[in-house]
């Protein structure tokens, strides 16, 4: 078996695949302050779930912010390459990938043969990322996982003028004081996230098919609003958080063959 592990700012994700590139098991956990501990915990959990030993892993590739902090990795690869590989596994015709992570968002342009042609990142502030949504959820006292569902019940359009997370929190508090419905405020928050995403997508020039990855892709309120803005369908993988780790696992299989693993 082959492993790919993606250590991000919010979650650590690991995927095991077999010789036929089939997913055998995966695990998603919260990233702690100690990346090495997070990596080891994820590895322990995924092997326990699969019922295998860590020594059964032939090759492991790490990616993400903490990719250089994994003790047992065979190689580390940038998340750009891994997300491209993982997205193409599910959607072979993907040309544009929007990944919204915990502390940044990025757009990856993919060529017809799956190669990375270009990418753009927004990492100057947390606005428009998973951290932004978590901060807004705390102010509203709602579960961040319920925000998509709640936004579907919005009945009035509300715009947030602040792009900074700190100022946006104050603006949301003011909206609450003005007795706006929580559902309408959440819809406005989603609109703010989508506007920032569309801005970076347009800079990259949107080409179909568009695939969205990262934990924010589970928020269907944001996905539907994004589709409305760009005028086309946005494809969501079955588990959007593991796409980077899956790409790393696919690269692990390839690298193993290169170093003498033959046809496995």
TrEMBL record:
Its cofactor is [4Fe-4S] cluster. SUPFAM superfamilies: Actin-like ATPase domain (SSF53067). Keywords: Iron, Iron-sulfur, Metal-binding. CDD domains: ASKHA_NBD_BcrAD_BadFG_HgdC_HadI. It comes from the Bacteria. PANTHER family: BIFUNCTIONAL PROTEIN [INCLUDES 2-HYDROXYACYL-COA DEHYDRATASE (N-TER) AND ITS ACTIVATOR DOMAIN (C_TERM), BIFUNCTIONAL PROTEIN [INCLUDES 2-HYDROXYACYL-COA DEHYDRATASE (N-TER) AND ITS ACTIVATOR DOMAIN (C_TERM)-RELATED. This is Putative CoA-substrate-specific enzyme activase. It comes from Kineothrix alysoides.
């Amino acid at each position: 078996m082959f492993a790919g592990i993606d250590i991000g700012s919010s979650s650590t994700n690991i995927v095991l695949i077999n010789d036929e590139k089939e997913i055998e098991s995966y695990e998603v956990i919260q990233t702690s302050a100690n990346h090495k501990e997070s990596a080891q915990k994820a590895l322990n959990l995924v092997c326990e779930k699969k019922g295998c030993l860590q020594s059964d892993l032939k090759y492991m590739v790490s990616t993400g912010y903490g990719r250089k902090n994994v003790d047992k990795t065979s190689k580390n690869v940038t998340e750009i390459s891994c997300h491209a590989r993982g997205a193409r596994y599910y959607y072979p015709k993907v040309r544009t990938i929007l990944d919204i992570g915990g502390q940044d968002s990025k757009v990856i342009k993919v060529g017809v043969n799956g190669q990375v042609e270009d990418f753009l990142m927004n990492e100057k502030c947390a606005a428009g990322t998973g951290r932004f949504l978590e901060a807004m959820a705390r102010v509203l006292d709602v579960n961040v996982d319920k925000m998509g569902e709640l936004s579907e019940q919005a009945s009035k359009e509300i715009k947030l003028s602040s792009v900074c997370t700190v100022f946006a929190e104050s603006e949301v508090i003011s909206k609450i004081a003005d007795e706006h419905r929580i559902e309408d405020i959440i819809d406005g928050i989603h609109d703010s996230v989508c506007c920032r995403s569309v801005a970076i997508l347009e800079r990259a020039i949107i080409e179909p098919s568009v695939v969205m990855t990262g934990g924010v892709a589970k928020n269907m309120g944001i996905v539907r609003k994004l589709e409305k803005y760009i005028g086309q369908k946005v494809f969501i993988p079955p588990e959007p958080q593991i796409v980077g780790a899956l790409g790393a696992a696919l690269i692990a299989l390839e690298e193993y063959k290169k170093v003498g693993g033959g046809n496995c």
